[in-house]
């Protein structure tokens, strides 16, 4: 059973197969992402009551939490894709890692900006050197370095190899930084309100639109990564075609 | 391996700028900071641990691109990669040579710079100890960054962008150890963590650096 399901995944290492399936799935993912994001945001913005302490500013949570979640998990996707590239050398995997990086970086930026907008009325400051804020800023720097390395190297395989090694080493240091920053300073940001162990501290009336938004953001991330990977595969095919023209 | 180390040391000393440049840069940063923030003793004493660590980090960064650049240009890096000695060993020796020419002089000279920064008396020992424990990590991590960018024409700026985020944990624990020492608090935890980062980096990163060099030479 296990080998069977693994084979099911590995067949997408074939770019042709990947293009076929992703082309079929993509419109659905985009559609569902749009429904999730638009629906979740409208639900959250207009059909939930204001918080008794925070007023209507609490509603930025519907952008802040999902983008922060994608920011971290985007890096995890890059890490897994890099590992697959280094171990099995599937080009699609390297391209997925490359495609995920700018999306993850943008989400990090959105999380930082919405956090600043939320922090101003709540804490009275746009920015504080709080552990969570600081580690997100550091995460942003890691994304920057990773993308810059991709851009700097011309040969695509060398670039894929070097960025993968950077991603592995960077993950260890990003994790260490998170721990170090916690050690460095106690901050303003609240602890995690959502967790998988079921003791949620968010009232249901806010929770359901939030979960809808999170689902929408996840689908949006998948859609963007698929789209960017498909673009990159097409760009490479084009390059190969042009090269063949020149030869002939 | 020892031969390689001696060769790198000789090159660094005779080509000039190995020892001197890093130290001079450290001095300039330490002079510029009081000019920028004002000469108040209490203020300088409060920020001294952090500034000294940041200055050490920047001074380290300055000489990183020279670790492999010359060897890459004249082809000795290809020879090293094909030599019977494991490339990991050669890389580790390169890091060691870098530390001996930047980290070690910085550590030894740091009390002097601490004096300029009005560092509290209690902190001198801690400053030297934390730099002695932490700067090897800076050299090893920097070697990894240099290995990633060795084939690039204008790798210098990219190198800083890649390496500085990796320096974050070392900087935090190192500066925290000195700060706590200066305030007379217990600083065993950050000090041990600095040592842990150094030992972990020294043990593992040469493999990543050697892999990066092999990819670049392919």
**CATH C-level label of chain A:** Mainly Alpha
Q: Quick one: biggest sheet of chain A?
A: none
Q: Whole-number radius of gyration of chain A? A: 20 Å
Arithmetic mean pLDDT of chain A: 86
Unreliable stretches covering 5 or more consecutive residues of chain A:
none
Query: What spatial form of chain A do the alpha-carbon principal axes imply?
Result: globular
Class by alpha and beta content of chain A? mainly alpha
User: In angstroms, what separates the terminal alpha carbons of chain A?
Assistant: 48 Å
Roughly how much helix do the residues of chain B carry, as a percent range? over 70%
Number of helices of chain B: 9
Main interface pair?
A: A-B, 26 and 29 residues
CATH third-level topology of chain A: Four Helix Bundle (Hemerythrin (Met), subunit A)
> Helical stretch count of chain A?
7
Total domain units of chain A: 1
Average residue-wise pLDDT of chain B: 87
Q: Any idea what the radius of gyration of chain B is?
A: 18 Å
According to DSSP, the number of beta strands of chain B is 0
Helix content of chain A: over 70%
Low-confidence stretches of chain B: none
Number of strands of chain A: 0
Please outline the helices and strands.
The complex is a heterodimer of chains A (248) and B (218).
Chain A: H1 2-10, H2 15-46, H3 61-88, H4 91-123, H5 131-152, H6 156-184, H7 204-247
Helix pairs in contact in A: 2-7, 3-4, 3-6, 3-7, 4-5, 4-7, 5-6
Chain B: H1 2-14, H2 18-37, H3 41-62, H4 66-74, H5 76-82, H6 87-116, H7 123-148, H8 155-182, H9 188-217
Helix pairs in contact in B: 1-6, 2-3, 2-6, 3-6, 3-7, 3-8, 6-7, 6-9, 7-8, 7-9, 8-9
Compact summary:
Chain A is mostly helical and 248 residues long. Chain A has helices spanning 2-10, 15-46, 61-88, 91-123, 131-152, 156-184, 204-247. The model of chain A has no long low-confidence stretch (mean pLDDT 86).
């Amino acid at each position: 059973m296990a080998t069977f399901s693994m084979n099911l995944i590995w067949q997408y290492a074939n770019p042709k197969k990947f293009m076929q399936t992703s082309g079929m799935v993509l419109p659905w993912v985009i559609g569902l992402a749009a429904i999730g994001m638009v629906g979740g945001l409208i639900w959250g913005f207009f059909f939930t009551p204001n918080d008794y302490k925070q007023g209507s500013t609490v509603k930025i949570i519907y952008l802040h939490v999902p983008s922060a979640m994608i920011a971290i998990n985007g890096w995890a996707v890059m890490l897994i894709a890099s590992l697959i590239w280094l171990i099995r050398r599937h080009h699609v995997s390297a391209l997925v890692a490359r495609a995920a990086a700018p999306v993850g970086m943008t989400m990090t930026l959105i999380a930082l900006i919405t956090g600043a907008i939320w922090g101003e009325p709540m804490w009275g400051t746009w920015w504080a050197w709080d552990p969570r804020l600081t580690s997100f800023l550091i995460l942003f720097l890691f994304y920057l370095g990773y993308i810059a390395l991709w851009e700097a190297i011309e040969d695509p395989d060398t670039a894929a190899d070097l960025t993968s090694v950077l991603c592995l080493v960077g993950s260890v240091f990003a994790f260490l930084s998170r721990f170090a920053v916690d050690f460095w300073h106690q901050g303003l940001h609240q602890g995690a309100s959502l967790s998988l162990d079921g003791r949620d501290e968010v009232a249901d009336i806010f929770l359901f639109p939030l979960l809808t938004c999170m689902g929408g953001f996840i689908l949006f991330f998948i859609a963007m990564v698929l789209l960017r990977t498909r673009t990159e595969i097409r760009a490479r095919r084009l390059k190969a075609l042009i090269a063949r023209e020149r030869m002939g | 391996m020892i031969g390689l180390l001696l060769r790198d040391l000789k090159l660094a000393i005779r080509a000039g700028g190995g020892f001197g440049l890093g130290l001079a840069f450290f001095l300039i940063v330490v002079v510029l900071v009081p000019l920028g923030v004002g000469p108040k003793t209490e203020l300088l004493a409060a920020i001294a641990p952090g500034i000294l660590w940041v200055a050490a980090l920047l001074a380290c960064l300055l000489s990183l691109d020279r670790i492999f650049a010359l060897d890459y240009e004249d082809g000795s890096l290809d020879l090293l990669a094909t030599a019977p000695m494991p490339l990991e060993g050669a890389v580790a020796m390169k890091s060691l040579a870098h530390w001996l020419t930047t980290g070690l002089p910085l550590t030894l000279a740091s009390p002097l710079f601490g004096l300029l920064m009005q560092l509290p008396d209690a902190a001198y020992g801690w400053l030297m100890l934390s730099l002695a424990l932490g700067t090897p990590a800076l050299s090893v991590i920097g070697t990894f960054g240099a290995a990633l960018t060795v084939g690039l024409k204008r790798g210098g700026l990219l190198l800083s962008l890649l390496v500085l985020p990796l320096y974050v944990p070392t900087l935090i624990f190192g500066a925290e150890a000195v700060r706590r020492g200066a305030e007379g608090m217990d600083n065993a935890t950050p000090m041990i963590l600095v040592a842990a980062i150094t030992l972990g980096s020294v043990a593992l990163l040469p493999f990543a650096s050697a892999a990066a060099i092999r990819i670049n030479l392919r």
